[in-house]
Structures are given as C-alpha cells and as structure tokens.
Amino acid sequence: MRLDSLQYARRFDHVSGSAIREIFKVIAQPGMISIAGGNPSLAALPDAEAAEIARDVLRDQGKVILQYGATEGYRPLLETMQSWIPETLGFDAPAVLPVTGSTQAMDLLCKALINPGDRIVVENPSFLGNLQCMRLYEAELVPVESEEDGLDVNHLERIFRDCRPKMLYTIPTFQNPTGRTLSLAKRRRVAELAEEYGVIVAEDDPYRDLRYRGESLPAIKSFDREGWVVYLGSFSKIISPGMRVGYMVGDPGLIRKCTIRKQSSDLHTANLTQAIVDQFIRRGLLPDHIRRISADYAAQCDTMLGCLESFPEGISFTRPEGGLFLWVDLPEGIDAKDLLKKAIERKVAFVPGTHFYAFGGHENTLRLNFSASTLPQITQGMDVLRNLVTEAAEA
Amino acid sequence: MRLDSLQYARRFDHVSGSAIREIFKVIAQPGMISIAGGNPSLAALPDAEAAEIARDVLRDQGKVILQYGATEGYRPLLETMQSWIPETLGFDAPAVLPVTGSTQAMDLLCKALINPGDRIVVENPSFLGNLQCMRLYEAELVPVESEEDGLDVNHLERIFRDCRPKMLYTIPTFQNPTGRTLSLAKRRRVAELAEEYGVIVAEDDPYRDLRYRGESLPAIKSFDREGWVVYLGSFSKIISPGMRVGYMVGDPGLIRKCTIRKQSSDLHTANLTQAIVDQFIRRGLLPDHIRRISADYAAQCDTMLGCLESFPEGISFTRPEGGLFLWVDLPEGIDAKDLLKKAIERKVAFVPGTHFYAFGGHENTLRLNFSASTLPQITQGMDVLRNLVTEAAEA
Fold first, then answer.
1. Contacts of A63 in chain B (CB under 8 A)
2. Is A51's CB within 8 Å of B47's CB?
3. Domain at A3-46+287-394: CATH code
4. Does the pTM exceed 0.95?
5. How far off is chain A from B117, nearest CA to CA, in Å?
6. CB–CB of B1 and A51 under 8 A?
7. CATH number of the domain located at residue range(s) A67-282 in this protein
8. pLDDT tens across A156-213, in order?
9. ipTM score of the complex?
10. Residue B323: other Cβ atoms inside 10 A
11. How far apart are CA A71 and CA A54, in angstroms?
C-alpha cells in the first residue's frame, strides 16, 4: 500500500497553511532587513556568561544535570523561583512548573482543559503561534475587541455571559502583535470576570521586564483570588529563546494536571538549560542584563517611532511602552500583503497584520519588530516602507 | 466561583492513577536500592566531556545557540545525522526531526495521526509511559502477544486484518520491559505487514547500541519500502537523558506534519543540547563511550542473571542480549505488588509487571533494571528479592 493513503488526524483540518513560514524563509536570505520576527538582538544574548555558567554547572552538578530529571522541574530552579516570583512579579507562587518555552505552557493548558468545540476568547489581533495551538485542539476561537488600553472588558463580559468560554488567552503587557498594554483597572476587572463566570485566564506575559517608559503594572494574576488565572512566564526575551525555558504559575491542582500531561509531552525540560537560567538569576546577573538590553531596545523603538512620524497622512501606529513590537494601521484599501511583496524585493520583511486575526481581514495593518535590527537597519528599512506606503497611498 | 467547578478535558478520563509515580517517590528515599527505574548509571554520564563541549559551543556559536532555532532542528546536528544515520543504523534518512526526547516523538506521532477511537497495536507488555501518551489521545489500545523472539507476527496479522489499526507501537530491540529482541525474520515480516495493511509502525529503538552479546540486527525501518515505518531514536541511553535529545526518521510528508505539530508543542528543541550531542558525535566520542558503558552494563546484567539462577524453582526470566531490563515470571498466585511492599521495607524497589500491560493482569510478573545499580547493590537487592520470593512461594 502506498503511503499517500495515510489519513492524518482530523485536528489538522483546522490548521491553515503557513503564510508566515514563507515570510520566515525569506528573512533568512542574506542582506534582508527583518522587522518581521520577534527575535532578541544578537547583542542581547549573553553568550559569554552562558558559556561560563554551562561549564560550571556541568562541572559541579554534571551527574544530576545529565541524568533524568523530575517532570516537576530542576530542583534548584524551583527553589529560586519560589522567592524570585513574589519578589519580581508581586504574587505568590502556590505551584510553578518549568516548561520547554512558554509555547509548551499553552500546549499543556489546552491539553488539560480543551475539548473539541470548547471556546477560547482571544484578543483580536493576537499571537498567531498560540492561535495555531488552540486550533490544533479544535477550540472555537472567540475574538474580543482590542482598544488602546487593551482588550474591551465590556465586550469580554458579554462574551463570558453569552458564549460560556473555557478560557481567555491574553498578553496584557506590550502585547504581541500590537505593543499595547492592558490598563490597571482592566487587569483587575479581567480577574473579577474570570472568577464571576468561571473562566480560566491564560496570562501570557513574556515581555513585562522590557519596559522603556511608564510605570510597571501588577499582573492580572495578582488580583486572582480563586486560582482562575494561570501566569505564563518566559526567559526567552530576557535571557535566551534558544534555551527554551519558560514557566507557568497557578493553582496546584491545575499545575498538577499540566505536569501529568508534560510527562508524555517531553518528560521534563532539559536540566542543563534550567540550570543555566537558575544560575543566571542566582548570580544576580538578570537585573543589569535587563537594564542594558532595555536601554538598547528603547533606542531602537524610538528610532522606529521617529521614522513613522514622517510617514504620510492617514496612517496610525501604537506607541508601546516596552516589548518588541509596534502596530501600524494603513489607510483602508492598502493591502499589507502587496506591500510585503514589494518590500521583499527591496530586502525588507515585516508581517502583514491579517495573520494575527483569528478570522483574518484587517488587510491594511502590519506588525513591526524593532528588537532584531540595528539603528541603521531600522532607519533603512523604514525608508523603504515609507516610500512603498507613500506610493500605495497615492495610487 | 470556586475553582473546583473547573472541568478538565475528557482525554484525562482515560488516564489512570499513578501507581508508578508512587514507586518513584519511594526510590528517592535515602539508602534505597532501586532496580525499578530505567536510569543510566552515574558512571555512564559523560559530565566532563559535556562541560568542555558546552563551553566550547557557546564560545564558538553562542549567538546562534542562544537565539531562536528552527523547528526542523539545529543545522549542524541535522548535517551530522544525515551521514550518521545511514552509517550506524543502516538505512537512509529521507527526513530527520530532532525532538525533545523520543517521548516527544511519540506525542507528535499521536498528535499527527490519532483521532479518538483510533486503534494502536501495542506489545503486551510495553513501555507504560507511551501507553499513557496514547491514552491521552483517546486511542483504543489493542495488545499483541509477546513471544521469546518478540511480538507474535501471526497474531499481529490477524489484528491488522480484523481491527484495522492506525499504528503499531513496538520496541524491537531489548524491549522495555521484557528485554526481548524481535528476530530478523519477524522484523522483515512486520515491515511487510505494515505495507500490506497500511499501518504506521512506530519503531522505538533507544537501546539498540547497548548490546552485550549476539549480533546486531537491522532495524524494521531498513525493510520499509513505502514509508510506513517511523524510526524513533534517542541519545538518552548513550549520552544523557537529562539533555532531552531524540530524533525521528521517516517519510518527509509525515515528518513535515510532526514538525508543524512541534511548532506549537515547544517551537524547537533547545539548541544547546542539540549542539552538545552534535559535538559528541563529531568529536568521535560516541563509539568508545558506548563500548565502555556496555562493558559495565554487561557485567551488571550478568550479575543479576547469576543471582536469578539461585532463585527458587518455578520462576522464569528473560536473558536479554542488551538494554537495561530483564523480566521475571513468578509462580501463579504470587502478587508482585505485595512483594514490592515488603521489598520497600527492606530498602529495595522494582516495578510490578502488571503496570506494563495495557489491560493489567499478570500480577505475578516484574521488571528489573540492572543499569542504575552497582554490582554490590545488585547482589544485595537480589538477595532481598530472593528471600521474599522464597517466602511467598512457600506460603
């Protein structure tokens, strides 16, 4: 029998093609200025420190690190997190599970909670990687409208009341893709609504430490009384994404279910990368490192915003207080996908905003990343974009 | 609303409690002789080499290793595998996907292929971790009988014909839990049947390099003409389980589906652990390392077999040619779970065989591990077991 008679699982029926992947292939071309991805800058990756720490931990704890570990996490990291989370995030950590990047946290949550047809409320637009994850679990996505200060809580309440969703997925701080931040009052309200209607909130917060202006806000999790909020943290943006170390904090019963699920997902996260993150924190390297990369990213963000000021009339854009992204609305009628084709010819890549909407549309939007490019690259890339937008607006 | 009103996904309904986890908590007690797990010996873990390699790769390729990687795998490792697989495994590698331990390979295969109610044929007994994974995907498990030279291929054909399964899961070499090896003729036959009936074969082969006697056998995959066989390999038993690096080899279309699934499972396997495995191979360290640990394990295996010779009449056991485990049948009427309770009081732990059967039963069987204990520990632990078995047989 030929293999082409093989039938794949139905859950794949819900997963669309990979326009994004095509873009990422293009990024890899030499000479391309990429304001498309969400990569840290190379300067932000602490390779010298990691080399020293890796050698040290393998010398001192090599047998433990190379042996099977516990699904529950590498013990020294768990101990570190027990005090680090209250100190830096401002809420207690009744249960913490280190995961293989916070990508895995989302997968485990869906696996633990989502039956086919269950509804998940998602910001509109939202991080497309996790939208894809939810689709693989055959969740029905319910978009909640987005405002300047984050999701519309009145709309959210109507959805909670009328649609009885299982979960809300939100990125409250310097959101991907818009760069927007959920206000303090709305954070409190989201926690209240979750408790009132019995909806799990997946609070995905990988960018919170990358703040360039304004005051730090408490997490939604800090307003959570009954355990409906699960906090997803990550070291990808502040230490290294290639190490794949994130964590989830939540109710012990729910974390336990996710731990059991993790047993058959990858048994445990690599001990070595957990140990490197642990030592990075224990050696006190993180605060200075965050200050240094934040200063660089702030300059990159400001440069990109400065370039946008000279774009033609009729476009608007977000002014993020941190994170990696900003969001541009072009005049109606301009299709960012067409713009991208022309931009790629001129060696500049970005991501059309339509891909971040659960049900598409919004063709006149785009996401720009300022973390992965140098200041001259940003200026050069934005010059190309400005010319293309001007051409398109005049056409 | 209180969190105890939260409903978990139905897929958890199929997952039983964790008798095994209770055993593993016991193992952690100080002074316990564990012949229960499947850990490599501490002497087999190359901590000095890993420390040096980790520092080197982070110095030389630190920015690449700490940055986001491709879901498809760390490029240098992929290049290495392209020649290493044909040379050491004896079959071509049309597509290879590095995974976060071969645990993840099983998860990705189920995710790609299994709809609720789909049938998976499993050896009886089989590796319980992967049985749990299949249950989470709501597969219906169909046990195929096990013989001295591996699964019963006539029984397998009847199952293929009558039950129309989606997949066969088999550990052909030094099987977990029995230590048995599928004969050459049967390997060829399994590949033929898979093609004839259109059934995916998941060939889980983590122990193949740990051979202490007899001739190495070609993988089932080497008889595969149409791509129905997916080979699951692992570096857990020959370099380090704590690094979580395995791989899957198969048809490019199927590997592609698994790659897409992996995007939302953990995005990619940590670059650092992939790079360490890559350098371990490139530096030519693997053959000597395998020879050294195999010599140790062979002695441990022989010691355990020697102890079993002096057990009372009426017990039988496998004589594995490699791997980490052997399997004991006690006289009918003796329950290995009762034996375990008494053994734990005397500071010895093993795993009752019943847990490895998809539908339980076989209470008079047990799995013993010889890799994680020293020769004196094996002798001491087996003395305890012998006394308990003798007592039980006389009762």
1. 42, 45, 47
2. no
3. 3.90.1150.10
4. yes
5. 11
6. no
7. 3.40.640.10
8. 999 999 999 999 999 999 999 999 999 999 999 999 999 999 999 999 999 999 999 9
9. 0.96
10. 29
11. 21
